[in-house]
Amino acid sequence: MKRGPVRVDELHAFDTLIDARSPAEFALDHIPGAINCPSLDDEERRIVGTIYKQTGAFEARRVGGAMVAANIARHLNERFADQPASWKPLVYCWRGGLRSGSMVNWLRLVGWDAQQLAGGYKSFRHHVIEQLEAASPRLQLRVICGATGSAKTRVLQALGEMGEQVLDLEHVARHKGSLLGALPGIPQPSQKAFETQVAHVLEGLDLSRVVYVEGESPRIGKVALPLPLVERMRAAPCIEVQATAAARLDYLLRDYAYLGDDADALAQQIGFLKELQGRQTVQRWQDWARAGELSPLFSELMSLHYDPHYERSQARHFHAWAARQTVVADDLTDAGIETVARRIAALPGHAD
């Protein structure tokens, strides 16, 4: 059995990755593929921390040690009960300290070849930042742009289904990237979890091949894109989907149909545009929202809000905007989107 410290680049050598931190810490971010088997749950961690501050380290360890022992016993009886003698788990906590160390000791006493991740989650977090900084400048990005309703995300997904490499940032962010882009009932990840998932995707890419990405602002909902990736996107060649207004409106009515399910929430979101669009215009839009009249609402949002700012913002954000290649589309049904994706993949300089 190896007894030396395990590094982040050795994760693949283990059968199971165990996060011994509390559920709240795990929910904020964790190593992809890890399972959460807390040494202390959220309330226990709070209690031990309070005892440490009020009484001192010895009493905190005495009380916490009993809690840790009980939790590890439960995991042995439940989560780990069916593991064979050859099972090889890797355990981590915040810094590779007592919480993961205690679990490793018990697992080794059973006879499993359990190991501890050197530096814990903090070392993994450093790895994520290093991966983003190292891989982003090497990406052969092609940025897919287009006015609101141009089905850019679906075009990106169609390229992926064709075998092209894609980086779907809105999928990772769980947000469509616009004022009305929040997905009903689906919370966005934390900033750290977003960065972890982006780094995870980058690790699986062949950096010698083209990678397609949607043109995004520096933020998608509440999460911010990693700065090295933003800089690479800003310098990359652009491809613009030039879809007709009719095709875009039809697509938006399908893609955002769920907004009609909560008319009051939609009207409230539109209210944030009063400063930009004026009270009278926004009142009209809110009346349409409450009445479920999405067609005139989306049509005016396109013509009065999104489109006037579109080309100016693209030229400001993307250095190669003036030299962009274009793909014209008058059909954004599933078949039309597939056609757009095939045309993009066939553009000069874009084949792998």
Report on the architecture of this protein.
The mean pLDDT is 95. The protein is an alpha/beta fold and 352 residues long. The longest helix is centred in the last third of the chain and has 24 residues, at 294-317. The chain has helices at residues 23-28, 42-54, 57-77, 98-110, 120-135, 152-161, 169-173, 191-203, 227-235, 245-255, 263-270, 274-277, 279-291, 294-317, 334-345; strands at residues 16-19, 35-36, 89-92, 115-116, 140-145, 165-167, 210-214, 219-220, 223-224, 238-243, 325-329. It is elongated, with a radius of gyration of 25 Å. A five-stranded parallel sheet has the order 6-7-5-10-11, sandwiched between helices. Strands 2-1-3-4 form a four-stranded parallel sheet, covered by helices on one side. A two-stranded antiparallel ribbon has the order 8-9. The protein has 15 helices and eleven strands.
**Cα-atom Rg, whole angstroms?**
25 Å
Query: What fraction of residues sit in β-strands?
Result: 5-15%
Going by helix content, strand content and strand pairing, the class is alpha/beta
Shape: elongated
Biggest sheet overview: 5 strands, parallel
Binned, the helix content reads 40-55%
Strand arrangement within the widest β-sheet reads 6-7-5-10-11
Number of helices: 15
| Number of strand elements | 11
Helix-strand pattern, N to C? EHEHHEHEHEHEHHEEEHEHHHHHEH
